[in-house]
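User: Sequence recovery, please. Input:
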């Protein structure tokens, strides 16, 4: 199914974004749990602290125990990143404070963020969203940002690049203002880098497949088209 406009009538009236957002996050979660390696699992809408919530989180049991292991694990070798820039995380200014206690529980490995109009409507909202994504990367948590919002045209990827002080390496803009970007943090010769796999989206076009990095050397494929179709089908959109 081609990408539809969920922020203009008739869909914005018949199927408000909040409901579709939830259905898509659940579809992505179910999709990932079919292919993640043993010891990893995905769950939707995970709260971290009082203010931060992740649309889809990929976690790993710290003791390596299996939980809902997929029967068809596929570790994906994605193409080389289109964007890459050295980043000094010691200079990144965050608007949040995180406190963790290690009780031998699950460790966050990746997060998927479905942008909403509220993330893009004001400078402070955009800054908060960017700081949230930078916070993931600072903790070596991979991030995928999916922006299908047609009601606002702010470039959240540019906001993230600015927050990372990435210079010339990361800036990029989709001509349609719709996009999906996969990010991961790497390190070489004691220099941290952020690598990105940007994909432009367009109304009426199929959605792409992105890499979802679950550790420094391994990623799984995240085929957005399949989960999007599942979400639309579950809500009887286009039927």
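Assistant: Recovered sequence (239 residues):
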């Amino acid at each position: 199914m081609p990408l539809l406009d969920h922020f203009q009538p008739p869909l914005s009236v018949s199927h408000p974004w909040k409901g579709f957002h939830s259905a898509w996050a659940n579809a992505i979660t179910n999709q990932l749990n079919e292919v993640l390696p043993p010891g990893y699992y995905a769950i939707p809408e995970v709260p971290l602290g009082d203010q931060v919530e992740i649309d889809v989180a990929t976690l790993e049991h710290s003791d390596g125990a299996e939980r809902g292991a997929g029967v068809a694990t596929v570790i994906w070798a994605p193409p080389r990143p289109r964007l890459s820039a050295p980043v000094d995380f010691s200079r990144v200014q965050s608007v949040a404070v995180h406190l963790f206690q290690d009780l031998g529980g699950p460790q966050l490995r990746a997060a998927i963020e479905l942008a909403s109009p509220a993330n893009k409507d004001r400078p402070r909202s955009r800054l908060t969203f960017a700081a949230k994504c930078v916070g993931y990367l600072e903790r070596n948590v991979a991030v995928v940002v999916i922006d299908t919002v047609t009601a606002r045209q702010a470039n959240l990827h540019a906001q993230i690049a600015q927050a990372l002080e990435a210079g010339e390496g990361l800036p990029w803009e989709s001509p349609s203002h719709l996009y999906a970007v996969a990010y991961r943090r790497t390190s070489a010769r004691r220099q941290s880098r952020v690598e990105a796999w940007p994909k432009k989206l367009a109304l009426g076009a199929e959605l792409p497949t992105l890499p979802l990095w679950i550790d420094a050397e391994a990623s799984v494929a995240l085929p957005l088209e399949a989960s999007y179709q599942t979400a639309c089908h579950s809500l009887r959109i286009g039927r």
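Residues 17-33 form the longest helix (17 residues).
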